[in-house]
Amino acid sequence: MTDTLLQVRGLTVGFPNANGPNTVVNSLDFDLARGGALGIVGESGSGKSMTSLAIMGLLPKGAERTGSIAFDGTELTALPERAMRSYRGDRIAMIFQDPLSSLNPYYTVGTQIMEAYRSHRTGVTRRQARAVAIEAMERVHIGDAARRVDHYPHQFSGGMRQRVMIAMTLSMEPELIIADEPTTALDVTVQAQILDLLAEIRADTGAGLVLITHDLAVVSEVTDHIVVMRDGDLVEQGPAERIFTDPQAPYTRMLLDAVPRIDDEIGLLRTMHTEEGR
Ligand SMILES: Nc1ncnc2c1ncn2[C@@H]1O[C@H](COP(=O)(O)OP(=O)(O)O)[C@@H](O)[C@H]1O
Ligand SMILES: [Mg+2]
User: Fold this and answer.
1) Rounded distance, CA 251 to CA 229, Å?
2) Which residues form the ABC transporter domain (predicted)?
């Protein structure tokens, strides 16, 4: 066992074509400590999703990957697909932006959690898997889980569907959870609830978390280390607090300025008030 759960070195992803290598992730380095939470932040197109797919070994066709990705001391890039499959879902799980596209509309959520669980555990009966599914749904605070387990995805709200996805992930007891824009499709209050849930799960299970988002506000509460990316390049990285209080790169400052702050809004209201009073 090493203290570093995930070590990424020189990770480069490109889509080579006639015009050249078309690099979309350029020599990325970062570490995730065991039980740590890392935020990857950057605007759309900065290479965040390609980074997470590279870790999962799920890059789209035509992508070329170089560099090193060590998970718990094992070089993932050297693993044959068959061996990688036993890491995916089981030890490393991924939560995507749109839970609808990851859930099959024709099966109940319970069936899907059970199938996912049983595909990674041998000799599990349906009854046992069902109990695991209900327990996982309870852990993500889906009320009345024993009844809701038999409902279909469309019977859940967006936030509840994301909870179902997190329950599915949890049932596998992964050591690393990669959440790629898990709250982007949700409204602000629901976003906060899902982030709280991710933080709670991390504290409960000790799983490492990589939280990917275009929104610096989202990573502020949940992560302890932040990697800022732009157009495939690593702009800067450091402890979350330092990134917020003392950003080194103008790009990070720009992202920070885009984060609405409650005191700013109060300030704005005051200004409007004074102007009106004139
Ligand atoms: N299949 C593909 N072929 C060519 N380029 C792609 C492909 N998929 C993604 N890209 C490009 O890779 C870049 C990074 O994409 P992505 O990692 O999805 O960004 P982010 O998640 O930060 O928004 C983008 O410029 C995107 O257009
Ligand atoms: Mg993305």
Assistant:
1) 9
2) 6-256
Question: Is 17 close to ligand 1, i.e. is its CB under 6 Å away?
Answer: no
Q: Where are the domains of the chain?
A: 4-241
Residue type (1 letter), 144 = D
Q: What fold characterizes domain 4-241?
A: Rossmann fold (3.40.50)
Confirm or reject: Cβ of 46 under 6 Å from ligand 1: yes
- Report whether residue 152 contacts ligand 1, using a CB cutoff of 6 Å: no
Cα of 103 vs centre of ligand 2, distance in Å, is 19
pLDDT tens per residue, range 21-37: 999 999 999 999 999 99
Q: Which helix (H) or strand (E) holds 230?
A: strand 225-230
Give the separation between CA 178 and CA 227, rounded to whole angstroms: 14
Residue range 118-143, pLDDT digits in tens: 988 889 999 999 999 999 999 999 99
Give me the pLDDT at residue 271, please: 57
Give the pTM: 0.90
47 close to ligand 1 (CB < 6 Angstrom)? yes
Contact 29, 10 (CB under 8 A): yes
* Cα separation, 219 vs 36, whole angstroms: 13
Contact 95, 166 (CB under 8 A): yes
Q: For position 107, what pLDDT does the model report?
A: 97
* Ligand 1: residue whose CA is nearest its atom 11: 24
